[in-house]
Amino acid sequence: MLPPAFYPASGPAAFSRADFGPDFRWGVSAAAYQTEGAWNLDGKGPSIWDDFVRRRGRIKRSETADIATDFYHRWPGDTHLLKQMGIADFRFSVAWARVLPAGRGSINQKGIGFYDRLIDGCLERGITPWLTAYHWDLPSALQQLGGWTNRSVVGWFTEYVELLAARFGDRVRHWMVLNEPMVFTGAGHLLGVHAPGRRSLGAFLAATHHAALAQAEGGRALRAALPATAQIGTTFSCSYVTPSRPGLARDERATRRADALLNRLFVEPALGLGYPVVDLPVLGWLDRYHRPGDEARLPFAFDFLGVQNYTREVVQHAPYVPLLWARLVGAAARGVPFTDMGWEVYPESLYHMLRQFAAYPNAPRLLVTENGAAFPDQPNLMGRVPDAARQAYLQACIGQVLRARREGVPVDGYFAWSFTDNFEWAEGYAPRFGLVHVDYDTQRRTIKDSGHWYGRFLAGEEVRRQSGLHDSVTAS
Description:
InterPro entries: GH (IPR017853), GH_1_N_CS (IPR033132), Glyco_hydro_1 (IPR001360), Glyco_hydro_1_AS (IPR018120), Glyco_hydro_1_beta-glucosidase (IPR017736). The chain is α/β, with parallel strands linked by helices. It has one domain: Alpha-Beta Barrel (TIM Barrel). Helix content is 35%, strand content 16%. It has helices at residues 32-35, 48-52, 71-85, 96-99, 109-124, 140-143, 153-168, 181-190, 201-225, 249-264, 267-270, 294-297, 331-334, 348-358, 388-406, 449-458, and strands spanning 14-15, 25-29, 89-93, 128-134, 174-178, 231-243, 304-317, 326-329, 365-370, 411-417, 436-439, 444-447, 463-464. The longest helix is centred in the middle third of the chain and has 25 residues, at 201-225.
């Protein structure tokens, strides 16, 4: 059983949307592969995730995103639902293989036309589109040529981004280049748990350097092609990291190495600081993938950075883990509250990461472009979807954003993950992050209690600290 709710000890006791100011952006996020379905319709080519889900044992319950939430067909109703909920900013991604089935060359007019209709539909409903160019779904045709381990991917990606800018730049003002490059390089090329399923240090290092170059080159391509008013950013996964045994030198050193890998690997090159080799020496091996001029190509002056945070990580020295010499101590092993993803419920992580990113001398403004929690929730007999734990978690995290903002952190937006329940990568459909519940058998949408609360908050309702709430949440 889930306790009624969770609320942290710190953060504002009461706040409302007005406390963030009139220019603060409020939205929700989604991703093409996790929602669109229509994986092989209307000329779309296969992606690395279309391939990966068909490999035995890679996805829990052998589920696929062939249909997902069928957003490809149901976007008119879903965008109407956004309007009904009072959500004025919608972040989504373009499926590269839907636009360019082979990753380059011939354009799929039906595929690119889908995004034309989606963008126009958002604007007609008073919803501002925020477009992410790459959210992990590399075309299979490019993977056959080496994918992110092939340096040519920088050029392929730049040409793809130029196409998006030329087609949508007259209507889309807010752009994000990459979604969480640390995840698609690390989980996809080092750990093998995400597409394309590689387990190779060399593949990880090559993909890392090429993604860092593509991050900057993609930004430059957008800057050259878009109107001067366009806002260009990119997004980073991050987790506040703390030592398992504070004060123990080897745990402190392990924590610095984990921070360099999880939080600093892509943001520091973008800011002109190079890779964090001092704290993680194995990154020195990236030199083998460098070519003359790369150091000058890695930085780009983004207009904003997207901070994507869900939890913290507790780190312990581990002599049996080569190169990193560190391991993460899971929430269950520590006896602390956790979600359906096994992630610790720790809203203050968001505050700490906003502070960390803002501390860079040349950091641009920040937006929280993903934040949320997966808890088990289902419609009750009355047709409601009660999800008090998620509602309290979102309230707590938004409170932490306000805490950071009041301390001078230039954070100008918050996007909840996610709009609807969706396909959660290797975990399949079991974890539910959405503000809107999806019955995957019928595709019926039901706004959860947390979604109704978010709408009321955006309409001006004040959030008050509630008394008598449990101080823990554990996935059942």
